[in-house]
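Annex B. Sample input.
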Amino acid sequence: METFKSKVWVLGDDIDTDIIIPTDYLALKTIEDMKQYAFSPLRPELSSQIKNGDVIVAGKNFGCGSSREQAPEIIKALNVKCVIAKSFARIFFRNAINNGLLLIENPDIYEDVTEGDEIEVCVNRCIKYKGREYAIASLPQNLVDIINAGGLVQAMRRRNGLEPLR
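Annex B, continued. Sample output.
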């Protein structure tokens, strides 16, 4: 399994899809056009501050609200390595997996972590932060395969022996 170290961005509870990408920007042509507005109702500067491989740590019910697929797509387009939260809205969880975005549930790290710090994630094993290990549940292999492929469509193309999407 993969292990990586990342800078942390901390968000609160109930980060809904309207905070992740406000409705006003859904009319833009591409996810690339939309991503600059990610989290703008909460922190307008955040999308420009997130760097490749960073991690978002949030409270409970991340991704609640509408079922728009653009929400996880935009987080992925920001090159966020994963989102760790106390809990996720179920439809957001599945949309994220289908779009190749790793989500990790953990009830404790949100209370301990400080924005800007670095954490180490050992996928399907634990999160390491300041000498402490936080247990995480393993995702089933079929979901890991989807994430590793970059999303459900790419995973099915691989499974069926078709060229990977570009």
